[in-house]
Design a protein that fits this description.
- The structure holds three protein chains of three kinds.
- Chain B is of the alpha/beta class.
- Chain B is 25% helix and 26% strand.
- Chain B has one domain (3-164): NADH:ubiquinone oxidoreductase Nqo5 subunit (Beta Polymerase, domain 2, 2-Layer Sandwich).
- Chain C has a four-stranded parallel sheet.
- Chain C is elongated.
- Chain C is α/β, with parallel strands linked by helices.
- Chain C is built from six helices and four strands; from the N terminus they run H-H-E-H-E-H-E-H-E-H.
- Classes of the chains: A mainly alpha, B alpha/beta, C alpha/beta.
- Chain A binds chain C through residues 1-4, 31-35, 39-40, 60-66, 68-69, 80-81, 84, 87-88, 131, 135, 146-147, 150-151, 153-154, 157, 167-169, 404-405, 408, and chain C through 33-38, 40-42, 44-45, 48-50, 61, 63, 75-76, 78-84, 86-88, 110-116, 123, 133-134, 136.
Chain lengths: 409, 170, 160
Amino acid sequence: MTDIREVSVDELRHLVSERAMTGETMLLNMGPQHPSTHGVLRLILELDGEMVIHCIPDIGFLHTGVEKNMEAKTYQQAEVMTDRLDYLNPMGNNLTYCMAVEKLVDLDVPPRAQALRVILAELQRISSHLLWLGTSSLDLAAMSVFLYAMRERELILDVFELVSGQRMMTTYIRPGGLWRDVPVEFEDAVRNIIRIMPGRFDEYESLLTKNALFLERTQGIGVISAEDCVRWGLTGPVIRAAGTAYDLRKTRPYSGYEHYPFEIPTQKEGDVYARYLVRVEEMRQSVRIVRQALDRLPYGPVRSNNRKYVPPPRSELSKSMEALIHHFKLWTEGFSAPAECVYAATESPRGELGVYLEGDGGPKPYRAHYNTPTFMNLQAMPLLARNHYVADVVGIIGSLDVVLGDADR
Amino acid sequence: MTDFFEQAVDAMKERFDAQERRFAGEVTLILRPEHLLEAVQALRDEFKFDMLVDETAVDYWPQQSPRFHMIYQLYSMAHNVLLRLRVHLNGNAPHIETVEKIYPNANWKERELWDMFGITFDGHSDLRRVIMPNDWQGHPLRKDYPLGYEEVQFTFNFKEVDHRKPYAQS
Amino acid sequence: MGLEQKTGNMGVVTTTLEQVVNWSRTNSMWPMLFGLACCAIEMMSAQAANYDMSRFGMELMRASPRQSDLMIVAGRVSRKMAPVLRQLYDQMPDPKWVIAMGDCASCGGVFNNYAIVQGVDEIVPVDVYVAGCPPRPEGLIHGILTLHEQVKSEKLKNWA
């Protein structure tokens, strides 16, 4: 198991040019362990001097077998595995899975839970974009932005810890609503975040947006047109930076997003700089959405009352026989879903994250497939990296916001 | 559902004898493998379903015919509608034509399906494993492939599992 | 004893070779950048300003295994990545230590299936296991300090 069986050039012959066979161009391995590949991504670059002729991504170094493992667990247990797919967006993964389950079994979600889901998903988007900003600027040698972004991210992680006890893999959003209601300190903590964030975004922009070095390294690099984005199925900030205002929160709204007006930032050039501008503006729009949702937060329950799918609160167990029976059934066998299939999609910070869920009448999902944005976006890597220098490849990977847990599942 | 969408669904039903299923506001058309390429071409060119959102498969072992169902999700950006196509495949080593020429992003999706299910795509430009290591045997997402479960080490069986576990020497 | 009091003013300290070498090893142990999955994000948070790891001597993370002493395996190791992990461990010069950060590196974590190595100690010998999914940055720092204690108590006869 521990010997390395390397892929020989012959097997990749159809992907590289003939000059590689004669040795005129060099095949360089930008390996799975590399400071700038944002995870375990391997790129095989065919180089003519410093210029990239072909770029072949090799993924699978983080394959976790989540889809097969979810088939062996009940719907409730399988949700725990969904957090760990796109590990910068665990709330979003949970939300997508719960939307699919709710669609499959036709479960209602109370309005307070929907508003809280929106707030948490947008906070997660801000935290993911902050990490993106930090690491991609670190790759382009702007190191202080990394430290500032992580400092802000700690505030958001504190909020997640306040509601669920866990900083990252919260599993807080459950089918039918949320696990439990938010504590009283939640509102003050979130208001504090939305008060200071716009100022901090201005700080980051003052460091990067008009910086001559940053502009040189990002303008005109990794350009893709809007038609190519549609042909290659790229979604998220990549397609918005190329000109098309396609955002799932507006086109197929979910969880109450239609009640909160906000703008979809777009740019026209489709290069690394445009993607940077789109993401920074998205962070500002997320703050706007959180503010609106928090101002209009309704009172009420946070989880559906349908006891066939949602466990009763523990206080009821000693009082009511039906509650005890429901609790017993849900914990031993789990709830059953019909033998139908659904597809639910949300807008993750990287693009369209979709779940295809198929039940079989039993308590375990028969097939749970994740349609992840990074898998689609990485396919276009050869297109984006052609005729650029090796140093630009680093910037391009950063701008695509690659998270390998998403791609390899 | 909009008029345009109903037109597309009706055209598919007429031309290719597709069956329709509706559930939870979504429409699934069941096609035969011979008609797949024509149908997808028509959907992209005439009915403007320009983005392939998802391509996946489900295994229904031990049922042999059909054993696999291929699922394509198509999206129309202009009209904002989603359509699902299902194609039934028989047997243990099924073949189907690739839609890579029509939607380029099907490239990696089909490689993943070859890797995970063993479905061969005729005409694919680069059919090799994408997620599993290159020399892996078997197709993991098939239902007759074991999960690879390792026995959980509790206090009562700690020593037995410890004995069998391959620790690294140094 | 008396000797140190007399020579301490002149800037001279007497100690054993063991203590000096162990002290110097712990005070500037450079970790190798081996972040794989979610635990890597917590490792980056531990490196950032809020839970600073550079106060323990780990100012920077070296990407090259030839220049690092400590490998923090942060995240799940899949079967495809396992040979890469072993090769990187072999390329690190002695003395080297390994911290298995998180549940997936310690025992396979949530994922008990064909694709994940059930515990990175099947591939490399581990010195400290840090539990958590993902462990808090403070948990990682506690693990590192435990490793420091362990290194400080290493004996001369184990070095050869």
